[in-house]
Amino acid sequence: MGELYDVAVIGAGPGGYVAAIRAAQLGLRTVCIDDWEKPDGRPSLGGTCLNVGCIPSKALLESSENVYRAQHSFADHGITVSGLSIDVPAMIARKDRIVDRFTGGISLLFKKNKVDSLHGRGRFLSAGPPYVLEVQGGERTRQIEATHVIIATGSSARQLPGAPVDGRRIFDNVGALSFTEVPKRLGVIGAGVIGLEMGSVWRRLGAQVTILEAMSGFLQAADEQVSREAFRVFTRVVGLDIRVGVKVEAVVPGADEVTVTYEEAGERKHVAFDRLIVAVGRAPNTGGLGVEAVGLKLDPRGHVEVDSHCRSNLPNVYAVGDVVRGPMLAHKSSEEGVAVAETIAGQASHVNLDTIPWVIYTWPEIAWVGKTEQQLKAEGVAYAVGQFPFVVNGRAQALGETAGFVKMLADARTDRVLGVHALGAYASELIAEAVLAIEFGASSEDIARVVHAHPTLSEAMHEAALAIHKRTLSL
Ligand code: FAD
Ligand code: NAD
Predict the structure, then answer these.
(1) At 370, which CATH number?
(2) Which residue among 264, 282, 365 has the greatest number of ligand 2 atoms within 8 angstroms of its CB, and so is best to mutate?
């Protein structure tokens, strides 16, 4: 039999590596098994988030935003730029260096925290506890035993039937992060988070971007007012051609282009692109995990079925992150990882899925936490709205970033903050205050009474809280 661990974590994405570190910090003998490899075959920890997700996409978003600013905003500051050129391979190389720094950093964190790291594919061989796991990596196959198992195997891009990723004309998030030149005509199927972020990157670098979305509404998870205004800015200012309510019927790659046939308002249309990104959601990774060998229960959508404490149907087997229900977000995965490690160590810990912040790193950014106005209406909750536009915020004016607003929703009776929605510059940073407020059960009056530094974008949050009681000071 193999070595016996207190905890074996399968997957070293933000769910798995954080769970492993926390478990080891709590004195549990921990191993983390991960099979991710860079294109050259080197193991690379950090999962989707670090390798082909959050970090590389944000690196490219920043590079492309700089191009956009140089082309469109500098003149307003009295700065003239001539001879501007874009070196896409240099941008990709910068992105890759950032990824390397972070993925390498996890190996160091594992060493520092005494987490054993095994490279290879893990699967259940027999039921437990202790569970016997097989780890197959390269030529070597080994077995280990573990009293507790945390499944953190993440998710992969969902494929569109009839449009397989070929790495030549059709790409998923992996390929979309590594184009070495700007496609002239870029098609994107799916106006979700990846479609909008990757579409923004390549649009700012000069591509003509068309996004085809099946749903008749745009960004339906966001507050309707935010999605309406975001749609207006993305289509009219950023220049994304977003077509909603379309039915993609065929995708035909050719030697020089890929043709998409779709139906829009009862009319059949054909459009040719140089490259096509398919971003129609992600599916949980449970294949090859030996689910059947141990009788691990999956839900109808293929996620590992878990309760509110991430416990599966098997004793001592937990699952966290993208492989279970809930939003597919890195911070949600990590918080579940921490909570499970602490639960295994005998502590009381849980994650409140109602206060997970969402951020879409377009420009302007979109961020929210808690309920949307349409959710409150559907639930019959009486609420008050406070809203404040960035155009009258001093810092936004100084930055030249005046698009958008902060919108706060509070219970009409108790004044408790129920949701906060922001569209604007650095909305990703502003939302942290709202998460804290909702987690602490704050009222809008609490936020209104907190001192916010001047001049900062956070004053828009303060004013939105004041607006709930119709007492804004700058509008
Ligand atoms: P993953 O990160 O998917 O990690 C799972 C790991 O397990 C992988 O390394 C995988 O290879 C490994 N694995 C799977 N099966 C096995 C096995 N049997 N044996 C061994 N190893 C296995 N989220 C945000 O919060 N913010 C963002 O800005 C953001 N941007 C994103 C941008 C893109 C383009 C994409 C694709 C995603 C983005 N996400 C973002 C989502 C985020 O990446 C995921 O929510 C997060 O990575 C999920 O973490 P995880 O640990 O559950 O799984
Ligand atoms: P998504 O669920 O955000 O969006 C997919 C979109 O594709 C939806 O709008 C859906 O209606 C549409 N769609 C589905 N099938 C279609 C079809 N046949 N034709 C046209 N449109 C179709 O998924 P995603 O953009 O692939 O991203 C996956 C997940 O990764 C996200 O849900 C998110 O959790 C995570 N992510 C997060 C961030 C972030 O936090 N900033 C960034 C990128 C990805």
Answers:
(1) 3.30.390.30
(2) 282
> What is the average pLDDT across 357-385?
98
Report CA-CA distances (Å) from 466 to 8, 215, 325, 336: 49, 36, 36, 34
* Domain carrying residue 18: 4-157+283-354
Residue 202 Cα, ligand 2 centroid: separation in angstroms?
Answer: 17
Nearest ligand 1 atom to alpha carbon 323: 52
Classify residue 127: in a domain, yes or no.
yes
Does residue 1 have a pLDDT over 80? no
Among protein residues, the one whose CA lies closest to atom 23 of ligand 1:
329
The DSSP secondary structure of 225-239, one letter per residue, reads: HHHHHHHHIIIIII-
Compute the distance between CA of residue 312 and CA of residue 152 in angstroms, rounded to an integer.
12
Q: Is the pLDDT reported for residue 139 higher than 90?
A: no
| pLDDT for res 138 | 76
Asked whether residue 13 is domain-assigned, the answer is yes
Q: Are residues 143 and 176 in the same domain?
A: no
Within a domain: 8: yes
Say whether both 80 and 134 belong to one domain.
Answer: yes
Cα of 147 vs centre of ligand 2, distance in Å, is 36
Q: Residues 174-230: pLDDT tens digits?
A: 999 999 999 999 999 999 999 999 999 999 999 999 999 999 999 999 999 999 999
Positive or negative CA dihedral for 284, 287, 290, 293? positive
Q: What is the CATH number of the domain that holds 192?
A: 3.50.50.60
User: Which residue has a Cα nearest atom 43 of ligand 2?
Assistant: 194
How many whole angstroms separate alpha carbon 354 and alpha carbon 370?
6
In this prediction the pTM is 0.97
Residue of the CA atom closest to atom 33 of ligand 2: 328
d(CA 69, ligand 2 centre) in Å: 27
Classify strands 30-34 and 258-264 as parallel, antiparallel or unpaired.
unpaired
Residue 359 falls within a domain, yes or no?
Answer: no
CB distance 11 to ligand 1 below 6 Å = yes
Task: Mark whether 454 is an active-site residue.
Answer: yes
The total domain count for the chain is: 3
